[in-house]
Amino acid sequence: MSESDATTASAANTTAAGASAAARQALLAMPKAELHLHIEGTLEPELALELAQRNGVQLPWNSLDDLRSQYSFENLQSFLDLYYQLMAVLRTADDFRDLMLAYLERASADGVRHAEIFFDPQVHLDNGLDFDMVVDGLLEGLRIGGERYGISGGLILSIVRDKPVESAQQVLDLAERRAEELLGIGLDSAEVGYPPSLFEECFARARSMGLHCVAHAGEEGPADYVTQALDLLHAERIDHGVHAIDSSELTARLAYDRIALTMCPLSNRRLQVVGDLHDLPIRRFLDRGVAVTVNSDDPAYFGGYIGANYQALADIGFSFDELEGFAKNSISHSFADEERKHQLLKELNDWQQDIPAKR
Ligand code: ADE
Ligand code: ZN
Fold it and tell me: Which among 11, 175, 319, 357 is most buried, taking Cβ atoms within 10 Å?
């Protein structure tokens, strides 16, 4: 049987009920990059309670069950309320290092070879922490994790768009000295009512500091916010981008300019951006030539890390070839240097050669 015959035969193993157990396992081993991950969104409830105790931070929940009962979300804001509240337990450089290491260990188990990781410095500053301490802790975690797991990557400083624009500028004042240690600037938090246009100056400044530009847009906000992120912020990727599907002109532009979407299926379902995973417009983006990547966003809150996001798409009928395409996109649309991209694409290719046995 040829490799393509084997591929077809194994694809037939994928039933309406979901992907085969072997295929689900293989998806975890598939080399991939994670391009949309908030480090604070990897704070598992167990660790949150442990850090609260260690750091003497009072939380309104006394037990794990009590805290866990909070994890049902009506929309983005209801998630953000819990997410920002729990961030208060992060107090020291060691906390940030340990959080990063815990993420990288899980990411490594899910085949992540490169990770571009958001952090929200404005929130930590508001909690009385020092910018350099936060960055030092996260970078130390990345360095140790890089040695331990062979994962490359970097930090994307994310602007919290529902805080005053001046506070974003203050963070950039602090980041300027350390711009070479950062990979990029992003834009996150409550979207509707906080259009990208508010942050044109911030992003221009970040670009002049040599930072890559990405922005959350079209998660709950309209397609026009995605257009603004491209026109005004010069975003090189769009985080989520779900509502870009509402404009054929915009999807044509995303395809033509090779702007990838960093999509997060489990997040979109849990935050009720879509009622059901089948309602995600991923297939329509593919039909229009838009590059899609698969990511976990805030895995401690949404029921799964990146591997679970790939598996969820397999379960609703995306083929192995399509899922491999998402992994390939994640590497080629990363900000890794060309040598690293080449190395990772080769890893993915080598892995693919071995697939018939693995599916
Ligand atoms: N911050 C953390 N997760 C986010 C999301 N899904 N959307 C906007 N801001 C976020
Ligand atoms: Zn996000």
Answer: 175
